Amino acid sequence: MAADLTRIVKAYDVRGVVPDQWDESLAELFGAAFVQVTGADAIVTGHDMRPSSPGLSRAFARGAAARGADVTEIGLCSTDQLYYASGALDLPGAMFTASHNPAQYNGIKMCRAGAAPVGQDTGLTEIRELAERWSDTGAPEPVATPGTIGSRDTLEEYAAHLRSLVDLTSVRPLKVVVDAGNGMGGHTVPTVFAGLPLTVVPMYFELDGTFPHHEANPLDPANIVDLQRRVREEGADLGIAFDGDADRCFVVDEHGDPVSPSAVTALVAARELARNGGHGVIIHNLITSWSVPEVVEEHGGTPVRTRVGHSFIKAEMARAGAIFGGEHSAHYYFKDFWNADTGMLAALHVLAALGGQDGPLSALVAEYDRYVGSGEINSTVDDQTGRLAAIKAAYQGADGITLDELDGLTVSAADWWFNVRPSNTEPLLRLNAEARDEATMAKVRDEALALIRG
Prior knowledge:
This protein has 454 residues and is an alpha/beta fold. The chain has four domains: 14-154, Alpha-D-Glucose-1,6-Bisphosphate, Chain A, domain 3 (3-Layer(aba) Sandwich); 166-255, Alpha-D-Glucose-1,6-Bisphosphate, subunit A, domain 3 (Alpha-D-Glucose-1,6-Bisphosphate, Chain A, domain 3, 3-Layer(aba) Sandwich), CATH 3.40.120.10; 261-366, Alpha-D-Glucose-1,6-Bisphosphate, subunit A, domain 3 (Alpha-D-Glucose-1,6-Bisphosphate, Chain A, domain 3, 3-Layer(aba) Sandwich); 372-452, TATA-Binding Protein. The protein has 14 helices and 22 strands.
């Protein structure tokens, strides 16, 4: 029997506990399989600060080189820095990170040349099947001419590319607290922000894959408490938190209050539309706020609604020729960044918008934050399909109610909407609700939860 790797090969990446679920020998097989499936004769790799990352990354490189591919290792980097290298060098890439997961986890995010995603339907299934077969039968025979393994530092090039896309040279001086969560933001922020009119107050910039201060997941309110307090203590203009691999950014205003990722999406969309002559397609997933398509249309753009998940966003970005896309999870995608997600570029846009006018961030984002949202609420259920059917039956045919099943079930009325989606990996249903006021949102949220939980 070949190994079963379905527990660690997810919809978009490889993710599991090291060494219990995977190790360097398996990473080597993944490297060989990646080259076999992509047909690449050269690739680029990078890794985060987790203790297991350098060894896993080098093992992957050995496997890739054994199949004839020349490997360029860029070493310590953020995930969006790896996407930069994949785009700028026009090479398939592999990033070793488990993002915001705890220290014992690690993973691989893979892409084709130009940062095009590799997911279940775009090569990841074939990579898994090859690695499973080889783990049982032994690695394939090396090719006659193996590839080489070399290194290249891309941090300065990456930073220069980002700064070329957002002009911060003429903004007013800003004081910004940055919480890197001991993740890769501590590596990239000093170079990207260098020379800009910013006073940076660093928090947890020391690279430490054991995450001694808090998990590097800023979407969990518990993990931004330190940032919120520090922004208030410092009298800073804003705070920015990055996740472990620094591809997502989360923003708090001058009071330490969180700025919703939907408001950031709307703000950046307005700026990107202005930069593109007041027209262009903006992608947003179906659980971002109503504010996003409203702002896009007000600024001359065309909003396109899509399923949740980066592979869907990236595919729709390419299909529609979109200039920007945003998700509720604080992933932001840019045409000028090979349709890939980069939290750092979104952060630069927020800094430029704030520094380009005199008011505080809270006033600036109020224009883009028009509704009251529940946030994502997860419920453990025995029968996802049955509960979704019960919710659909409860609302079907009701006056003024529309239903759609683009991703889970979305129920909409004139003053509110909610979406319920099943998790792909756990027995959960995920609820997001929004309304024009707090009381309506609470009522809709509680009605939906009662149906979800039976």
